[in-house]
Amino acid sequence: MKLAFIGLGVMGFPMAGHLQAAGHRVTVYNRTAEKAALWVSAYGGQSAATPREAALGAELVCLCVGNDDDVRSVTLASDGIFAGLASGAVVVDHTTASAQLARELSQAATARGIGFLDAPVSGGQAGADSGALTIMVGGDPDTFSRVEPVLQAYARCIKLLGPAGSGQLAKMVNQICIAGVVQGLAEALHFSERAGLDSAAVVEVISQGAAQSWQMVNRYETMLAGEYEHGFAVDWMRKDLAMVLAEAATMGMELPVTALVDGFYADVQAMGGSRWDTSSLFARMQRQGKDAP
Prior knowledge:
By secondary structure, the protein is of the alpha/beta class. Helices cover about 55% and strands about 15% of the residues. It has helices spanning about 10-20, 35-45, 50-55, 70-75, 80-85, 100-110, 125-130, 140-150, 165-195, 200-205, 215-225, 235-250, 255-270, 280-290, and strands at about 1-5, 25-30, 45, 60-65, 90-95, 115-120, 120, 135-140, 155-160. The longest helix has 29 residues, at about 165-195.
């Protein structure tokens, strides 16, 4: 297929590469042209000067950018994706954005005869690099069935979860779970350290039982080593949790643990950890322990 990919950050760069490696003809766009040139050098394909030019003639356009404003900019602007697509093409938005934006874009796409799916991903940079992402999708079933085989190039699991916005809502569920699990792991490791235990040995044991989680298996070593220059940044997590809490407010519900952990991430930002991995909640616990009387 003739494809376009918009946004070549830590996720989009390898995702677009998997599409090119799968035999598709991929044109990329990135706000920083040097990054697009680097992608072409690494994978082949070609780059374009605007999202509209990248989308011209494409059957499918995928995007993975920063936030709602970024998505609107690359889709709805005069030089955006929608201006370059012909009727019958499909847009897949992998950005973690608001469910309301997904609904708006779905309506705008339908008015132009274009298919649209909101399809945020989970699995982090490691999942993007290895082509093993989980993709949560909202949109029309027929549109989904058309593009699912293409998205398999970088997916371990893809599931259609309902109409437009459902993918974004599912990603919010994902982030709620992660926030609670990481805070629990941070508290557990801090408790273990203060108790004088060999924390690595403790994790080796408890990770074989009911306490096991992806975060425990993949993050405990770097947490104990105080290494946070990797993975999903605290800034990004706070962006996601802000959307979660706003969506919950529209439902008239409270998410007390999520709100609490969001505040803890604000503390990490104040410590200078805006770009640290989300597992840096452990660094906050350690800082608190040192400050305690």
